[in-house]
Amino acid sequence: MAALTLRGVRELLKRVDFATVPRRHRHKKKWAATEPKFPAVRLALQYFDMTYSVQFGDLWPSIRVSLLSEQKYGALVNNFAAWDHVSAKLEQLSAKDFVNEAISHWELQSEGGRSAAPSPASWACSPNLRCFTFARGDVSRFPPARPGSLGVMDYYLMDAASLLPVLALGLQPGDIVLDLCAAPGGKTLALLQTGCCRNLAANDLSTSRIARLQKILHSYVPQEIRDGNRVRVTSWDGRKWGELEGDTYDRVLVDVPCTTDRHSLHEEENNIFKRSRKKERQILPVLQMQLLAAGLLATKPGGHVVYSTCSLSHLQNEYVVQGAIELLANQYSIQVQVEDLTHFRRLFMDTFCFFSSCQVGELVIPNLMANFGPMYFCKMHRLT
C-alpha cells in the first residue's frame, strides 16, 4: 500500500504543470545570494547594550526602554509671531512654559532666602525663550504648527532638551554669535528667538542639511531679518573656522555631528550604524574635537562656547571637551575654563532627568516620565 501511494505521488508530480502556478507562489533558491545583513537599528542597539551597560550600570535598562519608546517634545514659541496669543493657546492645552516657570520659581526662592543665588556670569540664561512642555508622565502631543496671523509659523516642535545648550550659552544683547554646526536649524532658530544676536553666522558643511535650515528660517523668521545682515548662512568646513575667523565671536554654539542615539535606534535612513559608515563612526570623536577646538579659536578672549551632542557616549562628550581644552593649551597657549552648570541642573530638574556623574558638563538622560534627550552640553569660558 505504501509503495502504491509513493508511486501515485510520483505520477501526480509528473502531471503537474508548474508553469501554471502563479508567480507569487513560486520559490526559487538564489544560491549566490548572501544572507541578509542586520539592520542598522539593530546594530546600534547591540553597540549601546555593550557600551552603555558599562557606562551607566543599573541605570541602563531604564534609559534603554525610554530610548526605544516615543520621544517627548516641546513647543518653542516663535517670538516673530503673535507670541502672547500663541502662549495662551498652548496654555489651553495644559502645557507649561518650562523655562520661565523654572526661572520664576528660582527667583522666588532666592528672594525668600532659601537658596544662594549664583554669580551673575554663571547664572545667566539666554533671554526671551519660551518653550512649552506637558507635565512629567503626560504623553500628550502638540498639534502640528501652523502659520499665524503674521505669516510665520506659531511654534517649532523640538526635543525640549535641545533648548538647554542655547539657554546655557547665556546670550547678551548685541552679541556676535556663531552656530558652527547649525543644520537642521532648531537651535539656530532658538538663538534668533533671544533677540540678542547683532549678527548670527549659521554654518553647516552639508548642503542638503543647509537646505533644511533655510526652509526653517523661511517658515519662522520674517524676510527683513533673513535678508538683512543679521543672519549669514554658510556651508564651510567648520574645522577651519579658527583660521577663517579667529577671535571674532562673543558666543559660539558647537552642536557637533554624533551618533544621534535616539535616531540610530529608530531610523534606517541616514543611520550612522550602517556597515558602510563604520569608519566614519569610529573617527567621530576626532572630528568632534577638531570642531570644538575651531569653535574655541573663533571665540574672542573672554567669550563663551557651549559644546553639545545628542549622544550618551562619554567618548563623544566629556572626553572631547577635555581633549580640546588640552589641545588649545598645548598648541596655542590658550586657557579655557569649564563653567560649573550645577545650578542649571537644579533649575530645570523638574522638567528633565539629569545624569549625576558627568565629569564635566551636564547630560539629560531619557526617562519614561520625562522622555527627552539624550542631550549633553558643556559651557566653556575662553580666558586668553
Automatic annotation (TrEMBL):
Pfam families named among the record's database cross-references: Methyltr_RsmB-F
GO biological process: mitochondrial RNA catabolic process; mitochondrial RNA modification
Listed GO CC annotations: mitochondrial large ribosomal subunit
Active site positions: 310 (nucleophile)
Subcellular locations according to the entry: Mitochondrion
Principal location class: mitochondrion
Keyword Nucleotidyltransferase: no
Family: Belongs to the class I-like SAM-binding methyltransferase superfamily. RsmB/NOP family.
Name under which the protein is recorded: 5-cytosine rRNA methyltransferase NSUN4
Originating organism: Chlorocebus sabaeus (Green monkey)
Gene, per the UniProt record: NSUN4
